[in-house]
Amino acid sequence: MKFSTGFALRAFLAGVVAAAAIALPGLFAAAQQIDMNVVDQPGYQPTPEEEQLSGAYERQVVFFRTTEAPGTIVIDTSQRFLYLIEPNNRAIRYGIGVGRQGFQWQGIQKISRKQEWPDWRPPPEMIERQPYLPRFMAGGPGNPMGARALYLGQTVYRIHGTNQPQTIGHAVSSGCFRLVNEDVIDLFDRVPVGTKVLIRQAISVS
Amino acid sequence: MDTLGRRSGLAPVGLAALLFAGLLVGCATEPPPPAPVAAPSFSIDELVGKWGLAAYHRDTDRDRTVKEAKAQCGKPVVINKGPTGGVMMYLADNPQIQEVVLKVAPDGTTYLGPPGDAGTADDRIVSQVGPDTFTTVWVDPDNAARYGTMVYERCGKKS
Fold first, then answer.
1. Complex-level ipTM beyond the 0.85 threshold
2. Which residues of A have a CB under 8 Å from any CB of B?
3. CB A142 to CB B61 under 8 A?
4. Coil, strand or helix: which one is A121?
């Protein structure tokens, strides 16, 4: 299996970060700032065990005080969380992967389109680095875009799935927000086109 | 005489049987003759040019993948002639371009890969070859699963 060494190393590093988060909460914020040097793995199909998140990045209902209406999505890029606001100061929190340094952004968007098993087109810099890649890969298992995509307005950015669950909690993308496939399917089924999406570098959760 | 006559009559048959048996034993110890290798049904020069490259995993996606391959000529894959008669292409997960040749297995399957035996892990199976299109699938099961079926569509006119 190609990439297995790299994958094991990344999984180990993710484990170290997770362990540090539990044991040394004060260091967690600093640890999160470590960007992963991840090469995309087009076609790689993670096992169900690899896709099972644990700890903070596992999907869970949390207390979340906000003036935003229920149904709104709030993305906290610094903490690597996506919140779907629910009534009564609650939110469903998902662990996400975000844009690497230089590729992070903030703003207000609306979901303009929803797509099951989206296609994938590697960006030019990736083709330059990996010239053997196809310039287009039809959607399906193993596609780096994962099982679902939520397009953000007219931007090139999306909330989408991934075939690299080990990247959740890290800054790895070109500005998109990635969830494990099970989570993006869950979110996809909960939100309609037109949903408001707030992208913030940091939010205060009281 | 009658008995002698029968013996005389049987002797040549027994000798022939021994010779035949000897031949059989001789055949069994000879290495099998090399399987005839057919020439590829197309020239490797047909692959030289600029190509749009797209991939799919589900057969139902083939038609639209072909269209997508044609649309990828803004960032084409360029295949040039190699120094020893092959063409220069990338292998899976290797950014170092190298020379590959056409190879035909005894079962008629055409492979594209480094010089040597047909059907090795670095090879790809070539199919659906036309003047302006060809399709490949990696022999290595891991590569085949990750990259799927790759469609090449020629950009512009064949030179």
1. no
2. 1-2, 41-45, 119, 124, 127, 129-132, 134-143
3. no
4. coil
